[in-house]
Amino acid sequence: MSRSVRVVWDDALTGYDFGPGHPLAPVRVELTMALARELGVLDAVEVAGCVPATDDELALVHGRGYIEAVRRASVTGRPYRAHGLGTEDTPSFVGVHEASALITGATLAAARAVWYGEAEHAVNVAGGLHHAMPDAASGFCVYNDPAVAIAWLLAQGATRVAYVDVDVHHGDGVQTAFYDDPRVLTISLHESPRTLFPGTGFPDERGAEGTAVNVALPAGCGDVGWLRAFGAVVPPLLREFAPEVLVTQHGCDSHALDPLAHLMLSLDGQRAAYAALHELAHETAGGRWVVTGGGGYELVRVVPRAWTHLIAEVSGQPLDPETETPHEWRRFVAERTGETAPLTLTDGRKPEFRDFSAGYDPADPIDRAIMATRKAIFPFHGLDPLP
Q1: Cα separation of 70 and 60, whole Å?
Q2: 3-state DSSP call for residue 128?
Q3: Over the range 45-75, which residues count as b (16 or more CB within 10 Å of their CB) and which as e?
Q4: How does pLDDT run across 302-358, given as a tens digit for each residue?
Q5: How many CB atoms neighbour CB 231 within 10 A?
Q6: Which of 70, 68, 296, 248 is nearest to 150 (CA)?
Q7: pLDDT in tens, 292-304
Q8: What sequence ranges are listed for the domain Histone deacetylase (predicted)?
Q9: Distance CA 381, CA 237 (A)
Q10: pLDDT at site 109
Q11: What distances in angstroms separate CA 383 from CA 176, 205, 235, 386, one per listed residue?
Q12: Is 254 buried (19+), middle (13-18) or exposed (0-12) by CB count in 10 A?
């Protein structure tokens, strides 16, 4: 399915490090790339480096005063709490600007490759820092790399860009950046803001002409309900919007083992979502697909396996879920973390779901969440909210 694929990587991307004990530990991307390499996934793609985003590129989304504050914090390590930097969630550290700008530069490199036709798909698993606001850090995120990449695509002349965010947390920073811009369709499927940070992402947050789309799912939602919600909302909207480029954020913190949230997806359910988005990239965006990582805080059992599946899916050569993890990778996991690595690439689930077109059940909280979104958004796009 995929013609050419670029994976953007530089070992320096692990420099985005808030220190010992912080949930966003860079070892998660280190283990991901090591697993992908050991399984030969990277043999099927072009691996390319990146450079930090410039201040002018960051300013496509972020205020100049904010960028300057991050630069000052980068030298001193001091907090700038007026800009959200130096909190428990998003600590300040020496080098924070350089590390954050490099992650943004990596996602920009992916966007450039896709826009200029150098690659059909491009991925930066270190990216997806979707909470950063124009003038403030938030939720472990300093610069909003997906938003900067989308703004860059618009500056190159793109007239329709779609963004789909499957992180367990609402993609609030990206939504904010384009809330009044009908050229950008943002779709976020997340745990209900009533039970999880950042407390936004209700269906009535509709943006310009219904281009901000939020599916707020109840705590405890697993593969069956999540995939039903995805199928009921994402494909019809992408087909109607017909983006020139699809940008996706793949936080894997929707997994049942994630310590910071309350959805119950399996690795296999997440893998099904990756495959669905791959198909939609070809169907609706001519194959132009920019892919980022995102959240994910079960550092050994979830993130490396999930994102190795993601890279493999993007490459067009998905892995058999029964594949065993290589012995060398298990040894590396033990050395780096002291933990025991999982033995295979599956949780042993076979995610199946009943399509929403089969009927709406008002007694089902997931169906109610689906219908709330469809009622709020579908009429803007000439679509019938009813199944």
Answers
A1: 16
A2: coil
A3: beebebebbeeebbbbbbeeebbebbebbbe
A4: 999 999 999 999 999 999 999 999 999 999 999 999 999 999 999 999 998 889 999
A5: 18
A6: 248
A7: 999 999 999 999 9
A8: 22-313
A9: 8
A10: 98
A11: 24, 18, 12, 9
A12: buried
**DSSP 3-state assignment of 23?**
coil
Q: Residue 7 is inside which H or E element, if any?
A: strand 5-8
Q: At 368, which amino acid appears?
A: R
Contacts 24+ apart (CB under 8 A), 276-281: 276/230, 276/231, 276/234, 276/235, 277/164, 277/166, 277/234, 277/246, 277/248, 278/1, 278/2, 278/313, 278/314, 278/316, 279/1, 280/234, 280/235, 280/238, 280/246, 281/121, 281/246, 281/248
CATH numbers and ranges of domains, the chain: 5-52+95-381 (3.40.800.20)
Q: What is the pTM of this model?
A: 0.98
| Six-digit token string for 158 | 């793109």
Place of tokens 């985005």: 16
Burial class (CB in 10 A: 0-12, 13-18, 19+), 20: exposed
Amino acid at residue number 80: Y
How confident is the model over 357-380, as pLDDT tens digits?
Answer: 999 999 999 999 999 999 999 999
* Residues pairing with 80 in the sheet: 85
Running DSSP on this structure, what letter comes out for residue 326?
P
Strand order in the sheet with 46-48: 46-48, 5-8, 121-124, 289-292, 245-249, 161-165, 184-191, 212-217
CA 61 to chain centre: 18
Cα distance between residue 158 and residue 244, in whole Å: 7
Tell me the catalytic residues: 131
Exposure string of 199-226, with b = 16+ CB inside 10 Å and e = fewer, is ebbbbebbbeebbbbbbbbbeebbbbbb
Phi, then psi, of 247 in degrees rounded to 5 = -115, 130
DSSP assignments along 178-193, one per residue? TTT-TTEEEEEEEE-T
